[in-house]
């Protein structure tokens, strides 16, 4: 009591971590430490580095250490909704990774490690809700990529090397300051992008993102009050209160 420790987070013990292991629907071992109030990466979980999936989403992590390379079996890594400003170069050693979600953090382009392009088996990459002003052309090396989220950043263009990835099926680049609306539509629609919304809870958003979402909700509520023609009656009730329907699991982003 009385000691200055800065922001205090929950201490994760090895026992807590072991009790947080779940079996995912495809039989993998998933270490689920989401929404635990964690502020620093728990060193004790390095003793559980043989898990297939690691979920550290919805915490207050500012840094992921290079020791993440110990998780060589990792196929699925979820770090969304933290306070991350950078990623370690060691993330490029996770050669089995097919899913990486780093949405809703504070990542800038210069702090995206070039080693991301070493993740040759990556199929789903979510970089939405960050502070990216450009996308490295080197991400064009991720030939297995099928889905990429780039929404809510500061992008003015997307490199052809990324747009023309051979297996890409979904590209969400909504709400970026592209030079003109036609270019934004091209990025959004050229690849059949949006089949579902990516939802987060209001408490996980920064103030500027929350205001933007509230403004969008207000626009949608106006649309709701406009009576549509009988032949083209829209039906998208989930859009009116997006954050109220946020789900705890991230199965929607899994590779099926």
From TrEMBL:
Residues 224-256 are annotated as: Disordered. Transmembrane segments: none annotated. Residues 228-240 have a biased composition (Low complexity). GO terms for cellular component: cytoplasm. InterPro entries: Leu-rich_rpt (IPR001611), Leu-rich_rpt_typical-subtyp (IPR003591), LRR_dom_sf (IPR032675), LRR_domain-containing (IPR050216), LRR_R13L4/SHOC2-like (IPR055414). SMART domains: LRR_TYP (SM00369). Pfam families: LRR_14. This is LRC18 protein. It comes from Pandion haliaetus (Osprey). PANTHER family: LEUCINE-RICH REPEAT-CONTAINING PROTEIN 18-LIKE, PTHR48051. Residues 68-212 form the Disease resistance R13L4/SHOC-2-like LRR domain. Keywords: Leucine-rich repeat, Repeat.
């Amino acid at each position: 009591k009385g000691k200055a420790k800065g922001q205090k987070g929950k201490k994760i013990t090895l026992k807590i971590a072991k009790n947080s292991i779940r079996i995912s629907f495809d039989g993998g071992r998933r270490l689920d430490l989401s929404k635990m109030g964690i502020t620093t990466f728990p060193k004790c979980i390095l003793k559980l580095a043989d898990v297939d999936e690691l979920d550290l989403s919805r915490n207050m992590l500012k840094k992921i250490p290079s020791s993440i390379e110990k998780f060589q079996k990792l196929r699925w890594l979820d770090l969304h909704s933290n306070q991350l400003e950078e990623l370690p170069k060691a993330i490029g050693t996770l050669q089995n990774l097919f899913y990486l979600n780093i949405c809703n953090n504070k990542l800038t382009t210069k702090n995206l490690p070039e080693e991301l392009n070493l993740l040759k088996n990556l199929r789903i990459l979510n970089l939405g809700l960050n502070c990216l002003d450009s996308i490295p052309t080197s991400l064009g090396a991720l030939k297995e990529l099928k889905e990429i989220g780039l929404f809510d950043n500061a992008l003015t263009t997307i490199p052809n090397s990324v747009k023309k990835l051979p297996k890409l099926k979904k590209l969400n680049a909504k709400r970026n300051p592209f030079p003109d609306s036609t270019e934004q539509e091209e990025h959004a629609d050229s690849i059949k992008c949006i089949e579902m919304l990516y939802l987060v809870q209001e408490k996980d958003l920064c103030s500027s993102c929350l205001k933007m979402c509230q403004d969008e909700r207000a626009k949608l509520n106006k649309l709701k009050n406009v009576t549509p023609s009988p032949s083209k009656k829209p039906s998208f009730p989930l859009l009116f209160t997006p954050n109220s329907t946020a789900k705890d699991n991230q199965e929607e982003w899994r590779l099926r």
